[in-house]
Amino acid sequence: MQNKDNKELYIVGAPFAGGQGKQGVDEAPKLLLREGLETEIQNLGWNTHVSHLEFEEVKNDTPISNMKNPRFVSKAAEKVYDSVKAAAEKGFVLTVGGDHSIGAGTVAGVLAAHPEAVVLWIDAHADINTPAATQSGNIHGCPLSFPTGIDELPEDVEDGVFKWLPRKSLDFSRLAYIGLRDADEFEKSVIRKYNIAAYSMHDVDKYGIARVVEMALRRVNPGNTRPIHLSFDVDALDPFFAPSTGTPVRGGLTWREGCYICEAVAETGNLVAMDLVECNPHLGEHDEHIKSTLHSGIALVKSALGQTLL
Ligand SMILES: NC(=[NH2+])NCCC[C@H](N)C(=O)O
Ligand SMILES: [Mn+2]
Ligand SMILES: [Mn+2]
């Protein structure tokens, strides 16, 4: 079980863009640090340890099933997995992407260190397409298909792609979504079939963010006994607050709703790891867009790490 007095925090920079088609998302970790991410975290009383991963390119990375860059993404996510697993055994892990394909590594890494953990996936998208079902071929739309074990890649898949990742380590009863508004038809069918706790923007409008977080936590972590991994895709926020992202969708969370989710999860005392992904400083019409996206990301992290408003 997680030790609440442990104030060691490992920032894993994962500058990876191969899970989708737009360059720039790999520059976010360095820029977030330049905007003060680490000092802000230290100001909340954490001892920080920063590392930046490097990802080697893969030549002739032809599609496998419908997945683009399968070997490159699999190798990168495996590196993330190794680092997250090692860090999660020692303290809190904050993984800073990069695109959301690294979530395959963070989820598996957190579960390797904390097998009982639950996953909260805060996103406009469900990111649970299988290699065969993905329409775009972008693996940032697929990471949850692997730890849940619905990916259907054969055991002897070419070059051992995603072979390192333990399947079915994440049970559907331990996954909850908040913020959805652009799930693909296949993903909607997965959510229904496996009865995943999924709260869309419709639910946020209907119940308000406080009840949605409460309902989500009650579904996946009823006794509040399990460690929590919070995977936050910045595109869960409305593009007004996070315009510099690869797949923006209107009608998202407000700044406060995003921060509230993080604060409420922090209040459980069981948060052990967080991802912040999909900030892309190459996108957006002007500098203010980039700055506001990075600052939204930093605000979310601070809210998850103990910042209180009073
Ligand atoms: N992590 C993300 N931003 N994912 C967007 C995924 C969009 C779409 N569902 C796809 O599979 O291509
Ligand atoms: Mn998304
Ligand atoms: Mn995502």
Provide a descriptive summary of the structure in words.
The structure is a single chain. This protein is of the alpha/beta class and 310 residues long. It has one domain: Arginase, Chain A (3-Layer(aba) Sandwich), CATH 3.40.800.10. The protein has nine helices and eight strands. Strands 2-1-3-8-7-4-5-6 form an eight-stranded parallel beta sheet, with helices on both faces. Helix 8 (255-267) links the parallel strand 7 and strand 8. Helix 6 (201-207) packs across helix 7. The longest helix is centred in the first third of the chain and has 19 residues, at 70-88. The chain is globular. The two termini are 29 Å apart. The model has no long low-confidence stretch (mean pLDDT 98). Arginine binds next to loops. It catalyses: L-arginine + H2O = urea + L-ornithine. One of its GO terms (biological process) is urea cycle. Its EC number is 3.5.3.1.
Stretches where pLDDT is under 50 for at least 5 consecutive residues are none
> CATH top level?
Alpha Beta
Q: Would you give the CATH topology? A: Arginase, Chain A
**What order do the SSEs take from the amino end to the carboxyl end, as H and E?**
EHHEHEHEEHEHHEHEH
What fraction strand? 15-25%
The averaged pLDDT comes out at 98
Radius of gyration: 17 Å
> Given the helix and strand composition, which structural class is it?
alpha/beta
Outline the biggest β-sheet. 8 strands, parallel
- Could you give the distance between the termini? 29 Å
Task: Sum up the overall morphology in one term.
Answer: globular
Helix content: 25-40%
CATH superfamily: Ureohydrolase domain
Proper CATH architecture: 3-Layer(aba) Sandwich
How many distinct folded domains? 1
Strand order of the largest sheet: 2-1-3-8-7-4-5-6
- The multimeric state of the shown protein is single chain
Organism: Wickerhamiella sorbophila
GO molecular function, one term: manganese ion binding
Keywords: Arginine metabolism, Hydrolase, Manganese, Metal-binding
Cofactor: Mn(2+)
